[in-house]
Design the sequence.
């Protein structure tokens, strides 16, 4: 990675943000493609978010990726947003266009591509999916599974009111049947699903594990965990031991970054084995 006075600068805004793999990911591509540019991790507290964005825009940043807890605030600040961001109610990519903020959501496309890599482009066509959680990640997962033409998307949450709210908000945006389930109805919700997706933070490094009995799943069900640190969560380890196909969260991370990199630096990067190996090595190093 090199940087001159003409270099393009972007970054990721979050609180905290030191744990993010996005800087390593984008810098890998900057080196690989010999681009004059830089990508920075930018810790910004909630109270400073709006002022920080204006400051970054004025200092010449091309834009920023946005991570927790700012995705909804980024959507609210965007002067315009793409259709996916409007459906999700969240922005993970803000582009600076003169005096305007343009909001995009690339999480949906990133997850869709990751799932299709393992399950095939038609792997969810006409099938049922169960999502665990009702936050922003679950919203992205609903939209991604709908793009893959799942026919029945079930949302289970420990707080049924949140599942109800998610279903009400997204029903106008999806073709699939969308249904809320209480957490206590896990076995009923899991019946005959093709895919189970953990869209909660359970199992993330430093968080409580997701305690779930997978006996309700058929042997044909795949299990996806959007958590990528650790790369193999307890959920994925249990699923693999039972013979289920498993999908970790690193694929979504890599693929959601492609349109952001292209928007920042004007080149479409390649998601390949070298990138995954670099990210896996960093996860092992960080422990």
Sequence:
């Amino acid at each position: 990675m090199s940087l001159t006075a003409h270099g393009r600068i972007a970054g990721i805004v979050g609180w905290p943000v030191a744990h993010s793999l996005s800087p390593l990911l984008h810098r890998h591509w900057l080196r690989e493609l010999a681009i004059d540019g830089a990508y920075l991790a930018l810790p910004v507290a909630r109270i400073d978010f709006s002022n920080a964005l204006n400051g970054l825009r004025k200092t010449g940043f091309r834009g920023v990726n946005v991570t927790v807890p700012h995705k909804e605030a980024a959507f609210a600040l965007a002067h315009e947003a793409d259709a996916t961001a409007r459906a999700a109610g969240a922005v993970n990519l803000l582009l600076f266009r003169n005096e305007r903020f343009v909001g995009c959501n690339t999480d949906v496309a990133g997850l869709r591509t990751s799932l299709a890599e393992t399950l095939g482009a038609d792997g969810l066509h006409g099938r049922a999916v169960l999502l665990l959680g009702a936050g922003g990640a679950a919203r992205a997962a609903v939209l991604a599974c709908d793009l893959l033409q799942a026919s029945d998307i079930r949302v289970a949450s420990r707080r049924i009111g949140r599942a109800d709210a998610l279903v009400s908000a997204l029903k106008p945006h999806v073709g699939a049947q969308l249904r809320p389930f209480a957490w206590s109805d896990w076995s009923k919700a899991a019946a005959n699903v093709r895919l189970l997706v953990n869209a909660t933070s359970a199992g993330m490094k430093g968080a409580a594990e997701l305690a779930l009995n997978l006996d309700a799943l058929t042997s044909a069900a795949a299990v996806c965990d959007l958590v990528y640190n650790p790369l193999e969560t307890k959920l994925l380890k249990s699923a693999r031991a039972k013979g289920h196909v498993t999908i970790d969260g690193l694929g979504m991370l890599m693929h959601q970054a492609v349109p952001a990199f292209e928007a920042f630096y004007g080149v479409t990067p390649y998601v390949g084995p070298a990138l995954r190996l670099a990210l896996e090595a960093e996860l092992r190093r960080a422990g």
About this structure: The chain is about 40% helix and 20% strand. The chain has a mean pLDDT of 95. The first helix runs from residue 22 to 32. The longest strand covers residues 8-14.
